[in-house]
Predict the 3D structure of the following.
Amino acid sequence: MPEFSRRTLGDLALCALVIAGSIVLFIGASTLPPPRFEPLGSAAVPRILGGILIVLSVIVAVQAVVARNSESEPSPERPAAIPYRGTMVLIALVVYVGALDFGRVPFNVATPLFVLASGLAMSRLTFRHALFFAALGLGVALLLDWILSTFLFIRIG
């Protein structure tokens, strides 16, 4: 089986697993009691998370199918996978969670640094990529902080 077929099947299998996990989230959220005092209730976060996961899985699946149909054989100029990059992202994730939990680093500081570190671990180390991932991390942190505090009444950090 050619490399691009394995990649496409791997992407589609991962998407199917994520969608199955989202269905489990929806089933679990349906068993939670209805809200009494808060506006959204305790089932809101699992439902929102499940919906986001399904949307992102569909996007990845569509991209995998489109890339499979548009490419007859693997492109030789595509960079080879470097195994330590995944390890670097895992280390960044552990440091991020530790900084939030044990170090009490504010969410709006730790999240942009995590997005920057993981983004640079997955791409080339250039100033342009660093600026992009720093801006993306700051935007994600501010947007998540606003959504959680405004709609879910949750303060992080």
